[in-house]
Design a protein that fits this description.
The complex is a heterodimer of chains A (131) and B (406).
Chain A lengths: L14 E2 L34 E5 L9 H5 L5 E4 L2 E5 L9 H5 L7 E5 L4 H6 L10
Antiparallel strand pairs in A: 2-5, 3-4
Chain B lengths: L9 E4 L1 H11 L4 E4 L6 H12 L6 E4 L3 H14 L4 E4 L1 H16 L5 E6 L13 H5 L6 E4 L3 H16 L7 E6 L8 E4 L3 H8 L15 E2 L9 H14 L1 H16 L6 E4 L6 E5 L3 H14 L4 E6 L1 E3 L3 H7 L5 E6 L9 H10 L7 E6 L9 H17 L7 E3 L8 E2 L1
Parallel strand pairs in B: 2-3, 4-5, 5-7, 6-7, 11-12, 11-14, 14-15, 15-16
Antiparallel strand pairs in B: 1-8, 6-13, 10-12, 16-17
Helix pairs in contact in B: 1-2, 1-6, 3-4, 6-9, 10-13
The chains are: A alpha+beta (131), B alpha/beta (406).
Chain lengths: 131, 406
């Protein structure tokens, strides 16, 4: 597809999400969907992210807030258990961190270059409520 | 199921009524509109047909012409037969979305009732808005009278919706001179008219949930050029054969013949004017009179402005010695569009032709028979001399000292 000439594609700058017909797509997990090559699911569209959310499963209560609020479907959750972040599609907006209700938060923003183990090692302590 | 309307064989309709009746007969699914003079009655009439049960469709009243065409684009991408109408400033506000519609290959039909562009504000007819749309990737048909406005709508849908074409089309008519002047219009009965265009055949429609598609994608330097090249190629090579076929079918159905380039009194002519809209009919009348006086003058009417009918015009101009390009739009700093397009068409022909430019009729100023007679006289002098005997560009019918350039 990458090197197709002007006469080699369908008209209308229109892209098909899937190869062939699909049915019941809403209940099919992303990894099981027949995404076409044109679909951005198979491409990394996050290379301009400068801050990334890092997930710490030690504090997560699987409330699914981040999964619901993520505008780019970049929170991976299976059977209502938080799995992690899809870094090929996450733009680093920080909404997941904002809505995370745990103390300390289970998602925090770090510089894109930050090592994940280092980030987890330096995770903040639980904040005490002021009386 | 929509009710049928009984039409007389000949109805007394103005251009707006004729166009709106055609929209009713092809059973438009969605009209999104923001009415503007002089095209208002087209969408107003559609709304009334809808309210009275003569159309199964939706009328979407929006907040601007930009939104009107955007609504049409959405409805067309969803998979419906879609049309609207506009003029002048409204057309100008639509321009951004016109390119979206053609690039997305959505077969929308836009009735443009030609009107001058402000400032100064003016509601009357000239071709400024029509010219503004000429690079937008749409097919552009031009009607010279209400009958054409009626007939060309059917042609426009048939060509635009063809799956090998899938390009939007404009049907132009002159503001007030055509849109508000009632004439006898030969009608087609509802079933015959609908069957001529046929049932809408969706293509890559968004409501086909088994085959989801993304419309309105972004491409950068890696893909944009290929899409534009494809669109240009289809305009240049695929549209004319389909228009010819539609004109042939329409003639078989109604006896009325249309041509991509209309020619009148062109056999053995020495001089010809090339013009559009109602001016074609004025020029034909003068040409007939002057033929009676032994003057070899003819008229070329452009029926399809985009794609530009290069080969057809080249053929029509064979043997012609002097051509007058009549532009009803202020070129604002260059030659008129028709002059430039015709120059591009004739410059490589073996015969020497003298080409001059007349700018006329801005803001609805009349083009009189006296004007056309004077133009023909000058063109015949050019033909005789084999070179221009007048300035290359003249403004005619304007008060004050003679104004001409080059």
């Amino acid at each position: 597809m990458d090197n197709n000439g002007w006469n080699d594609f369908e008209i209308g700058a229109m892209l098909r999400s899937f190869d062939g017909a699909v049915s019941d797509i809403a209940t099919t997990l992303q990894e099981d969907r027949p995404y076409s090559k044109a679909n951005s699911f198979t491409a990394s569209v996050a290379d301009w992210r400068i801050e990334k959310p890092v997930f710490n499963k030690d504090y997560c209560i699987d409330c699914q807030f981040c999964w619901i609020y993520c505008p780019d479907i970049s929170i991976i959750s299976r059977d209502k258990k938080m799995v992690g972040v899809d870094y090929d599609h996450c733009k680093g907006c920080g909404i997941c961190v904002e809505v995370c209700p745990t103390n300390p938060k289970s998602l925090l923003m770090f510089s894109e270059q930050e090592d994940e183990d280092k980030a987890l090692a330096g995770w903040p302590e639980k904040e005490k409520k002021e009386k | 199921m929509a009710d049928k309307m009984e039409l007389r064989e000949v109805e007394v309709w103005d251009g707006n009524m004729a166009a709106s009746q055609a929209l009713r007969q092809v059973q438009i699914d969605v009209v999104a509109a923001y009415p503007i003079t002089p095209s208002t009655p087209i969408v107003e009439n559609y709304g009334s047909y809808l309210a009275n049960g003569y159309v199964d469709g939706e009328f979407v009243m929006v907040e601007s012409e930009h939104a009107a065409m955007s609504g049409c684009i959405g409805a067309a991408a969803a998979g419906g037969r879609v049309a609207t109408a506009t003029s002048s400033q409204g057309f100008a506000l639509m321009v951004e979305t016109l390119y979206q519609a053609s690039g997305m290959r959505l077969p929308i039909v836009l009735n443009v009732v030609n009107r001058a562009l402000a400032a100064p504000l003016n509601v009357n007819g000239d071709h400024s808005d029509m010219y503004l749309g000429r690079d937008s990737g749409w097919i552009q048909f031009d009607a010279y009278n209400p009958q054409h406005a009626y007939d060309l709508n059917f042609i426009a849908f048939k060509v635009a919706e063809d799956h090998e074409i899938r390009l939007p089309a404009m049907v132009h008519q002159d503001g007030f001179l055509t849109s508000h002047t009632a004439q006898g219009v030969k009608t087609i009965d509802d079933d015959t008219a609908y069957n001529f265009v046929g049932e809408f055949q969706p293509m890559n429609d968004m409501l086909d949930l088994d085959h989801p598609v993304t419309h309105g994608v972004q491409t950068e330097e890696d893909w944009h050029f290929e899409h534009k090249a494809r669109q240009h190629n289809d305009l240049m090579t695929k549209v004319f054969p389909k228009i010819e076929a539609a004109f042939d079918d329409f003639e078989k159905l109604t006896g009325r013949r249309y041509n991509i380039v209309e020619t009148y009194n062109m056999e053995d002519a020495d001089a010809a004017v090339v013009c559009m809209g109602t001016s074609v009919e004025t020029a034909i009348e003068v040409s007939n009179e002057m033929r009676g006086e032994g003057k070899k003058v003819g008229v070329i009417g452009i029926r399809v402005i985009r794609p530009w009918p290069h080969a057809q015009i080249e053929e029509a101009l064979k043997g012609i010695k002097a051509i007058g390009a009549l532009d009803r739009s202020s070129p604002n700093g260059t030659f008129g569009m028709l002059y430039n397009e015709l120059a591009g068409t004739v410059v490589n022909s073996a015969e020497r032709k003298v080409l001059t430019n007349y700018v006329y009729g801005l803001g609805g100023r009349d083009l009189t028979k006296v004007h056309v007679r004077e133009i023909f006289a000058e063109l015949l002098a050019n033909a005789e001399a084999g070179k221009p005997t007048t300035p290359l560009q003249q403004l005619i019918g304007v008060r004050g000292p003679k104004i001409s350039f080059h």
